[in-house]
Amino acid sequence: MRHTLLFQVLLLCCVSGSVAVAEHHCISDEVENKVGPRTTAVVLELPTRGGGMMRALTASAPEWAPIRFQVFTEDLNDPSKHCTAEKQIRPDFIGRNLECNKRDILTKEKRSIIINSLLPRAFRMHTDRLLVRPLTGRVIVPGYSSGVCAQFTIPSSHQTEGVSGADMYLYVSAGPTQGSTLAWATTCLKLPDGRPVVGVVNYGPRSVTDSENSVRVSAHEVAHALGFAVWLLQERNMLKEVLNVRGKAKVLQVSSPKTVEKTREHFNCVNATGMELEDEGGEGTASSHWERRNTKDELMAGISGIGYYTSLTMAALEDTGFYKANWGMEEPMSWGNNSGCALLTEKCLMNGVNKYSEMFCTAETTLISCTSDRLALGYCTIYLYTAELPQQYQYFSNLKLGGSNSSLMDLCPYVQPYSNTRCSNGEASIMHGSRVGPRSKCLKGDGLVDFMGRIGDVCAEVSCEKGEVSVRYLGDDTWRQCPEGSSITPTGLFTGGKILCPKYDDVCIIFDPLRGGGDVSSLLSVFPSISVILLVLIFISMY
After folding, report:
1. Does 82 belong to an annotated binding site?
2. Cα separations (Å) of 327 from 174, 184, 214, 383, 487?
3. Chain segment 310-331, per-residue pLDDT in tens
4. Taking the first listed entry, what is the main subcellular location of this protein, grouped into a coarse class (predicted)?
5. Residue 123 sits in which domain range?
6. Does the annotation place 224 within a ligand binding site?
7. Fewest C-beta in 10 Å: which of 129, 197, 290, 452?
């Protein structure tokens, strides 16, 4: 009884003062609802040396090659299409006019970041992994009179002479966005065989940073323009409904052959019938993303995270028939890997029992913990709601307890980062026992203690040279080899406990996803709650 009381009081105290990091929420499906009917392109064969009449056809080469991109930035050069000062009214490119604030202004620096960093690096992620039959003709881009695509400037020459030299053409803007949306994208024009060929991308300047995180979000949005969207998956007959999944009446799955194969491999579940799509997030997010509960750290989850470009997304794009995956370039993801079928078919927790400690949590400790992507320290997101949760989201004996209802996790509790406890750029003064820097990742602690008491998990510098992990922890400048499955016993500032050595893939695939900073809120706001927690502990210890 005492444990239950302590747990609930601590829970309320922690939640009341914590500040979560803002994450990119994709609004793909909201945009899709405003696109309107997609037109089919006319592709004109390029003139040959022998001349002759140009013919309307789908001009593509027979061999497969890495996909090529071309961007057009007229709207980034037109001051009437983006914010240049506060209080201006500018289009958001999905039908609304918004008032600009300081953060919405497209500065020269942010314009350069979009053109010279985010888009080229995002394109490279796809070029490295996707092959297409290269287009050899000129694509005539129609002028649009309504819908999202009509909001973008398409030069008259593109409508008459056409564009050539690429396989996917994107028109880019930087109208203001709302909330934590960095960017969105969609398809405007298809080839006669259905393959997307022209799309649009809008960046919200308020969230633009020259960071790996922004690159991954950009790659996510470009994937939507390439066809990772429910409308195209339906057109390609890749979807099916599955009834009675984890207490839900029905869910939507991508059930095409390669996706089923890679789903079975990743989760180690031979009975998997497909990869589940998101059903939370309303019209902005549902359907055109992987179910985040199952794939939190994947590129095509509906809320951005570390964004691994895994075999799951590569398989879905290959199954459209428009792309071939460059197998061997997929990025590994620990979330859900080898979890077995139970993760997909059963609740994340049963009566508060957690079988997946690397993914979910139960808040049985007040010590700060690593996030699943190893990028930050965070807290277990468990809330006490005012009413009992729906049956499919009941994970504890107390039916009012559950995770966040705004994180696309089916209310499963998981460790969520604070806004200023990222290993790469957090506030070292409040990250007890952590070494903060651009090369730092979060490492699990086993009974770590210093002169102030127990610590929990910590950030430490990580080196990945020659395929081996080495770490350098706070208070010691020596690099120490840290092979998976072993541990390090830190000294100096530490008086006890061990640092557990991580998998190479967990800490060496992606570095420094938020080095660009952005607006952060102080974690100091949690200190009053921590004080209350200490008082509660003292009070209970008296009984």
Report:
1. no
2. 34, 27, 25, 41, 33
3. 999 999 999 999 999 999 999 9
4. membrane
5. 33-47+54-226
6. yes
7. 452
